[in-house]
Amino acid sequence: MDNSILLISSGSTFMVDALCKNLQEGGINVTKCEPKINELEKYKKSPSIFLFYLGNYLDEIRDVLVYLRDMIVEDEKILCTIGDASEYDVLLKAISPDHIAERFDRPLDIKKVVARMTELLAMNDEFSRRKSILLVDDDPTFLKLVKTWLGEDYRVTIVNSGMQAITYLATNRPDLILLDYEMPVTSGPQVLEMIRSEHKTSDIPVIFLTGKGDKESVMKVVSLKPNGYLLKTVSKDELLSSVKDFFIANKKF
Q1: What residue segments make up the domains of the chain, in order of their start?
Q2: Fewer CB within 10 A of the terminal residue: the chain, N end or C end?
Q3: Cα separation, 65 vs 58, whole angstroms
Q4: Of 76, 67, 187, which Cα lies nearest the Cα of 134?
Q5: Angle, to 10 degrees, between the axis of helix 110-128 and the axis of helix 14-25?
Q6: Model pLDDT for residues 45-104, shown as the tens digit of each residue
Q7: CA gap 151, 49 in Å, rounded
Q8: pLDDT for residue 121 is more than 80
Q9: b/e 237-249 (16+ beta carbons within 10 angstroms → b)
Q10: How far apart are CA 5 and CA 32, in angstroms?
Q11: CA-CA distance, 182 to 208, in Å (whole number)?
Q12: pTM higher than 0.90
């Protein structure tokens, strides 16, 4: 189990030092980092959990907050924050509450922070063992629904365009891609072609999602030789069963 977290803070204060000491005494490895883009870049791969100690400097680092938000989404980081109401007002202009896993208010209960970080590390260890799925679709409602369904058993990343999928795949390797067949600008078949043409991604399995179930449409989808296809009218139970069956039948993935 990886017991490491990244503590983001501007300089050292008595409280930051006390927090760091208590986390380490609790068996947690702490790496400290300044809230700067060139510093955060070093931690795109690990650790997975970021603990951000806020301050009255947030207005001066709006670009850093945007970069941090993108890291959370693209690199699947778990963000926890420590701050007061005024600091959160600034933070939430750049980072949605949905992207904050845990919020600790000041005055700070350090023991509570240590206990919660320990819990999150254990949960993340279990979560990291799950299969990862990239879900690509231009329909935000469908994305949200299917992510909720799959999120019970898998690590799910969602993107809403073909080019976002290609960008994600440049630095990430999911165990399975669920790809919408019909998308504007860059269609599913075009995305599949790009995936197959790159040595780094050519063997990632791709299952098409299609809204058309007639014979002609299905044959057109199958002719592109994906690893399978699913109708977008599929029920939750049917989807989960199909994905589970795929992983069982293709254990190498």
Answers
A1: 4-128, 132-249
A2: N
A3: 8
A4: 76
A5: 50
A6: 889 999 999 999 999 999 999 999 999 988 889 999 999 999 999 999 999 998 999 999
A7: 19
A8: yes
A9: eebbeebeebbee
A10: 9
A11: 10
A12: no
Asked if the domains at 4-128 and 132-249 fall in one CATH topology, the answer is yes
115-119 LR contacts (CB < 8 Å, sep 24+): 116/80, 117/5, 117/23, 117/26, 117/28, 117/49, 117/51, 117/80, 118/26, 118/27, 118/28
Look up residue 73 and give its two tokens: 């989404």
CATH 3.40.50.2300 describes domain 132-249: yes
Q: Which residue has the tokens 């030092």?
A: 17
Q: Which helix (H) or strand (E) holds 14?
A: helix 14-25
Angle between helices 236-249 and 140-150 (to 10 degrees): 60
User: What does the radius of gyration of the chain's CA atoms come to, in whole angstroms?
Assistant: 21
The answer to whether 28 and 21 are in contact (CB under 8 A) is: no
Note whether 47 and 72 are within 8 A (CB). no
Q: Tell the CATH topology of 4-128.
A: Rossmann fold (3.40.50)
In whole angstroms, what is the distance from residue 106 CA to residue 114 CA? Answer: 15
- Given this model, what pLDDT does residue 149 score? 95
CA distance 238 to 132: 19
Pull the structure tokens for residue 79: 């963000």
pLDDT tens sequence across 196-227: 988 999 999 999 998 775 677 667 777 878 88
